[in-house]
Amino acid sequence: MSPDKKMMVSMYETMNRIRLFETKLQEFFAAGRIPGFVHLYLGEEAVATGACAGLTNQDKITSTHRGHGHLLAKGGDLKLMMAEIFGRKDGYCKGKGGSMHIADFDLGILGANGIVGGGGPLALGAALANKYEKTDAVVICFFGDGASNQGTTQESLNMASAWKLPLVFVNENNGYGISCPQCKSMAVTDIADRAAAYDMPGVVVDGNDVLAVHEAVSEAVKRARKGEGPSLVECKTYRWRGHFEGDACTYRCDEELKEWMAKDPIPRFEEKLVESGVLKKKDLKEIKARIEKEVGEAVEFAEQSPLPEASALMDDVYA
Amino acid sequence: MSKKTYLQALNEALRQEMERDEKVFIIGEDVGQFGGCFGVTQGLFDTFGEGRVMDTPITESAIVGTAAGAAASGLRPVAELMFVDFIGVSMDQLFNQAAKMRFMFGGKATVPMTLRMPQGAGIGAAAQHSQSLEAWFMHVPGLKVAIPSTPYDAKGMLISAIRDENPVVFLEHKLLYGVDGDVPDESYTVELGKADIKREGTDVTIVATSLMVHTALAAAEKLQADGISAEVVDPRCLQPLDKETILGSVKKTNALVVAHEAVGFAGPGAEIAAMVAEEALDYLDAPIKRVAAPFCPVPFSPPLEQAYIPNEDDIVAAVKSIR
């Protein structure tokens, strides 16, 4: 199912939103203006964008420690995200969560997650709730190659399949679990092969091709909505930055990075957009400029937002 | 009002809550047709069907995480782990996910889930099926910890737990399942965080939980024969902890013994003793005494297991050492 023109434009905007948001974070982190640590999504924009395009606010996602891209693709508010990452009072979580714990339940974002493999069981619960309430809403569980080895992920794949839950497992295989390359952490080349063990469809796609991701995930979503159960879509991609900002990346070589940067998902999509006449070159520029402005406004919002007061410390421990 | 066992009281609470609110469902290992490992969910599958009484694979992380995710999505799950000891397999989903979601997300999440788990020694189940782990849970901000000792409390507290907007860890003692007591037939609640004075006395306060409440009551009878009047306070809930009732009792009796089946070192009694020392030291005539399991795993062989579990003589001796 190929997306219509409107969706393609929206996908292009989302990819740029993620790219520019993350680039700004990289800059601010280096300048020491962001507390804690951040895991950037640069280079992987096509995965979140392709997977989330076409979802509604009733559809939910569970995300990961590298979650900014997922949240933005699901409609997350730039200003509230930026303020949260800055640890400010007006952030999504009032400064209580930070980069790894942003959620927006109204948009169906059940939260980024600081625990590798933590999201799978929660996604099961959200998908079960859809089934229980007899809605046709679906859940996407984003997880990395590292998380694919966690017991929680295997438990989730198994139960989702046994119960035919409306769940799509979107694996972002960026080749490394922190510093450990995939070849050292698992014997399989394709994580999608594991789907067979749970009797669900498993496909591999080029994770730097937003349309390919969208097509595969849409197919899985369609299947889930019809009550036919879960699927596993493995998106092969690469993170341009280290596991976290400040990671010296001594475990991989520059050539590899260059090779992947040449497969940058944004220019690849631009080519298709221009070729198919969806957008002209000047439209691309205009969109980028507009989003750059949006990101600038988000930074301004974050900077102007006050830091939380210590008196808020004990709020929201209990309902 | 009629006589019911602790197990029947729990079963009735589940049934009545499922009848009242169709968002309430049960999930766990063998909770369906099988009726639960100890029989707590017996008959519910027949009434409510597999759509609301769900047998899971033997994958505890999936059970606890499914409950958390479903609760955050608007349902009211009651999950069962067959033994509290299995929480180790699924702890992340409880303490990093369910417990913290609301706080981390700035108050946006509500996680109204109940996690029922039998605990305690006494049936020869050995080291991995007999522990009392309440101290683990009361140490985690975001969790409530209910530990009822009587059929009346079991029913009222389980109904409160199901209606609570927070994740509630609900700890049942295996040896209490067969204990009977007066339980109203209708639905009622017992507030989580409200202690109960199970026996009034004037000379010493015994704060006891779960099965140890009954042991403490037996000890109090013996002490009475020796002219010592013991007050038995059951916190019923360890988080939130009803400090007021405990302090009120200590201020009256001027002496404190804490009794529980969890190991003593860093056990729930350590927190209770510290709290009383901080807030009512001047009222105490004697050092605080703790009666608890020794710092070793639960053993298998009956004489060893009996040596492990604190008994009424241990409580009597502790009281007599200060009174």
Q: If you had to describe this structure to a student in words, what would you say it looks like?
A:
The complex is a heterodimer of chains A (about 325) and B (about 325). Chain A has about 325 residues and is of the alpha/beta class. Helices cover about 45% and strands about 10% of the residues of chain A. Chain A has helices spanning about 5-30, 45-50, 70-75, 80-85, 120-130, 150-160, 180-185, 210-225, 255-260, 265-275, 280-305, and strands at about 60, 140-145, 165-175, 175, 180, 200-205, 230-235. In chain A, strands 1-2-3-7-6 form a five-stranded parallel sheet, with helices on both faces. Chain A has a two-stranded antiparallel ribbon with strand order 4-5. Chain A is globular, with a radius of gyration of 19 Å. Chain A starts with a helix and ends in a 15-residue tail after the last helix. Chain B is α/β, with parallel strands linked by helices. In chain B, helix 3 packs parallel to helix 4 and helix 9 crosses helix 10 (about 270-280). The longest helix of chain B is centred in the N-terminal third of the chain and has 15 residues, at about 5-20. Classes of the chains: A alpha/beta (about 325), B alpha/beta (about 325). Chains A and B meet through helix 5 and helix 6 of A and helix 3, helix 4 and helix 5 of B.
- CATH topology title of chain A: Rossmann fold
CATH superfamily grouping of the largest domain in chain B: Thiamin diphosphate (ThDP)-binding fold, Pyr/PP domains
Q: Which shape of chain B, going by the Cα principal axes?
A: globular
What would the average pLDDT of chain A be, to the nearest integer?
97
Count up the domains of chain B: 2
Which structural category do the helix and sheet elements of chain B fall into?
alpha/beta
Poorly predicted regions of chain A are none
The whole-angstrom Rg of chain B is 19 Å
Jot down its keywords.
heterodimer; A: 319 residues; alpha/beta; Rossmann fold; 5-stranded parallel β-sheet; two-stranded antiparallel sheet; 11 helices; 7 strands; 43% helix; 10% strand; B: 323 residues; 2 domains; 7-stranded mixed β-sheet; 5-stranded mixed β-sheet; 12 helices; 14 strands; 20% strand
